[in-house]
Write a structure and sequence with these properties.
homodimer, 7 helices, 51% helix, two-stranded antiparallel sheet, DNA-binding
Chain lengths: 150, 150
DNA sequence: TGTATTTAAGACAAAAGAGTCTTAAATATT
DNA sequence: AATATTTAAGACTCTTTTGTCTTAAATACA
């Protein structure tokens, strides 16, 4: 898979938050139920995003998490890098250490192009865009049908 | 990672074979040493490619494996599908079951385009092309420097 | 026939990813 | 102050992937 499961969960939660009024803290419990993701697991993942500065959290009653900046300013790629690291954007597809323009592997060229297209997609897609798109077209964000964009 | 480690090893070995005269059986031991891949692990992987019909094997002294058809007729994508399956080409990037044009996820459109470019790369690249390219430009196929295209 | 060489098959172990659970710390409310 | 709610942190388990090892089967050759 291109992106780890943790990363996908983090992205789904981010889209959930992006669809809400900014500034409002949303509880992880709430999200986990609506998105169909294990609460504890989601907590751990969102802790990473918080540590990375993409989210802010608040403890106690009515606490929760929220995006640390407007959804339009957060790109898909930031979530991916925060959780999966930047291997996807740098690593040689043949997994050879030190593959680069100086000592390329046979797939260096073809893969570079493909990687650029992946990178472009990740860099050009903001949470705001995805959330708006999702809301307008009522697209799916959970496996089970228990999520509403409102 | 886009492609599993097993798949990468399978591909490296396939390129090794593609660089040899066709029809000649090459021992897995030999390949594993020149490519820097564990012998037993490589054996297991190549067994999959053999079972899939992409390679032929021969037991006994001077035995080994060889490509079952000309390297020009084997596309990168065949190796990937044989080892990793076709999830990469079908699966929704948000990992939602049943995501499709009828019930799409927010990333359905953007990801479809990216996936097509990956698919195109995999479908248009033959082992022969990669091996020739590698041989002509003396590109790297192993981590350590113990591989020669000859 | 016997032996060495090679792939086949499958058990086993180690590492990484995914997921669960418990306890601690912070905060709001009563 | 006491209690309920919520994230933080970390131990723990389960699953998948990766990697190792042993034994069996096929083949060539002396």
């Amino acid at each position: 898979m291109l992106i780890s499961k943790s990363c996908v969960y983090g992205l789904r939660a981010s889209l959930f938050l992006a669809s809400k009024k900014n500034g409002e803290y949303i509880s992880i419990r709430d999200m986990s139920e609506k998105l169909g993701i294990s609460f504890h697991f989601l907590t751990k993942i969102l802790q990473q995003l918080t540590a990375y500065g993409l989210m802010e959290s608040y403890k106690g009653p009515n606490g929760g998490v929220r995006l640390s900046k407007p959804a339009g300013d957060i790109k898909f790629i930031e979530i991916v890098v925060a959780i999966d690291g930047d291997d996807l954007l740098n690593e040689c597809v043949l997994n050879l250490p030190g593959c680069g323009s100086d000592t390329p592997c046979p797939l260096h060229e073809s893969w570079s192009k493909t990687r650029e297209s992946i990178k472009a997609m990740l860099e050009n897609t903001s949470l705001e865009y995805l959330a708006k798109e999702g809301k307008n077209k009522n697209l799916r964000l959970s496996e089970v049908g228990n999520f509403d964009w409102e």
